[in-house]
Amino acid sequence: MAQKPTRPGASRPGSRSTGRSGGAPGGESSALPTVRMKSVHVKSAKGRKLSSTLWLQRQLNDPYVAEAKARGYKSRAAFKLIELDEKFEFLKPGIRVVDLGAAPGGWTQIAVDRTKAGQPGGGTVVGIDILEWGPIPGAHCITLDFLDPKAPDLLKDALGGRADVVMSDMAAPTTGHPQTDHLRIIALLEVAWAFAEEVLAPGGTFICKVFNGGAINELLTEIKKRCPSVKHVKPLSSRKESPELYLVAQGFRAES
Fold it and tell me: Is the pTM of this model over 0.90?
């Protein structure tokens, strides 16, 4: 299990500076928080559920939330992508990137910064989400359900060519029924991979959110047929109690 730093801004054991920009004003490269925080206790309030109080307290005491605000990121999830990119180095200037489930835009911001999208000679970043989101300077922001039949063609048109990276942080709304929730998660993974197979350029990268305990063996087998390198990673910025992992598949091979 990955160890969390003992204090905001502390270095990970064995970590090294990559010199890659974190997408923030000033070009911070570290994915670790530097904001010093005081613990905040949220009192219960009339009409507020206990779950809401606990969520609010967690947000107010989360150093990644504070750091995201300080750097101008749309969400703390930006740090997950920073960590993944610093480890696997898939975001490069001039490439084309698709961000599935992009709202509120934290991943899109990082992708724009690292591909230099919107700049002369820079890359192209296209994001889509069913929720209202954007605009993100330098990105094409589409508000539409990715499962809508029109969505794939809209994304392809905005890309203007093969994608070098397809990344998905999509998660289905939970119902409280484990079997139903699991099926919804698998369905999203399958459609994300099917789209990636259509648009990825040779050598491309596919990234998606998965969950511990999820029986995705069949899908994983299909991904491994097309990508020689497939890794599972839990970023330090992913909350300890969350079962989420990220699958990073690289070296996409076109069908012969």
Answer: no
